[in-house]
């Protein structure tokens, strides 16, 4: 090819406002996320002083002002550590700026040059008041819809007087106050009794909350207390238990050495699946930071809830410093367990966990001394057959919210995309439907095409032109389908459909795959192989499905359950039948809800707990009455 003349090389333009917004709101989704970022920033500042040989008190104050209806008015976090001069404050307000000194080998959590800015912008607006060497510097930070994140900084820092120091809360010495006015109505603040254990137990704060030379104080003002404040020194108490494993691990094909400690708890703890406050699980640590709480393929195992500990993985920090950012998820939701380096460690840890989990399962397994009556066994068999039919249908039908049901067509008044909110699994196509009532169509045309577009390049519309045809079931509805595919985990997009002057939107998020491993194929004979009583004393639930044995276990010692069943599951009274149906239905609907969440079929994005609860409600509406009908028709 002949030599061509090119213009001067230049950077590829980027929509930085959109990038900032996606980055901010994927990092901070809840009030506790902001607190984690701000508190760990303060703790990092104390750590840098300690590593310089200076003594520190380590005090961090969290102040929350809650309004009615779970709204948050204000959040403050104060520390008495290094403080910042004007230059360092500017660096702290620069995206991806290396201010934590992690790259220099300091043992801190600040891996991204993020946290402070995201916490402020996601919640609302803030003033930052920081004192260093008796000079006060102030910055205001906010979000502008057109220009993105904005800040203004005091031109010349000055020496604050006594009253100014008192109003800031830093009476002497150095320190920083971040004072956020919460304007984002999506940010909710639960009541004190719910919020306090969140701050105490969040895995990323675990070390800070249990270190003797650190003191975290929560001041919580609530309207229920008529302006009075709850004040509590935060202390995380490590569960009681015995150390059962302490050994090094060598990651195959890598030079890394990893240290693992596992303790066995005296009592069952909350499991870590979709639960950042769980006390069971292994804390994954590197260079002073806790990046995840995991129990890998045993996340859902009851036996796994008796173990806790830590994995010290210093090689992870080294790889990040060297530029391999793919090992962690940028929005701070944890480690990228699909990265080959991380997969290699996971496999080694699971080899260690397997024998202790199997041993614990045998210890907690209880069996009735009296056989289950034949009539109950016949009921169990028939109900399992029904559950397997329902499960097969559930897994093969379109995701909830996609297809119209009888009577729902009357709600289609304008151009509509269904589902309006959805998760899509990375690199897997997901179908969406378009519905249009005939009264918005040009009847003279007889041929209708809708245009579909995405506002995010990482979430693509595979069918940008969709032909609409008469619906086969509803005569007043036209219908078409299009496909979406997501390329990067955590990305979010607005999907817009246009038909003439009419427009419809849907919101889509690329949801990470479930962390409990790849879903097994449907077993021969179905997922449900039996219903058995469990004699565990003081159980924490009424019924559960064990995916390994494929058995629904009914805990006959549970309060409110033991009044209805003998130890062998024989019925005690007439009311035992509806209770049996309710318990079996509860276990089945949890099973289908978990399936929907893991497959990205739940319509709620972001909070996995909300996603599960809505999927659970949908399953109960759909299946619970069928299970009750089958049980009541059965003759005993």
Please provide a brief summary of the model:
About 25% of the residues lie in helices and about 25% in strands. It has 11 helices and 25 strands.
Descriptive terms for the model:
636 residues, alpha+beta, Heat Shock Protein 90, nine-stranded mixed β-sheet, eight-stranded mixed β-sheet, 27% helix, 27% strand
Mean pLDDT: 84
Say which CATH homologous superfamily of the largest domain is assigned.
Histidine kinase-like ATPase, C-terminal domain
- Measure the end-to-end span: 86 Å
How many helix segments?
11
Secondary structure class reads: alpha+beta
Tell me about the largest β-sheet. 9 strands, mixed
β-sheet strand percentage:
25-35%
State the assembly state of the protein chains. Answer: single chain
Number of domains: 4
CATH class of the largest domain: Alpha Beta
- Looking at the overall shape, the CATH architecture of the largest domain is 2-Layer Sandwich
General description of the model:
- The protein has 636 residues and is an alpha+beta fold.
- The chain has four domains: 16-234, Histidine kinase-like ATPase, C-terminal domain (Heat Shock Protein 90, 2-Layer Sandwich), CATH 3.30.565.10; 241-364, no CATH class; 374-394 and 520-633, no CATH class; 408-511, Immunoglobulin-like.
- Helix content is 27%, strand content 27%.
- It has eleven helices and 25 strands.
- The strands form four sheets. Strands 14, 15, 16, 17, 18, 19, 20, 21 and 22 form a nine-stranded mixed beta sheet that branches.
- Strand 9 and strand 10 form a beta hairpin.
- The longest helix has 26 residues, at 608-633.
- It starts with 15 loop residues before the first helix and ends with a helix.
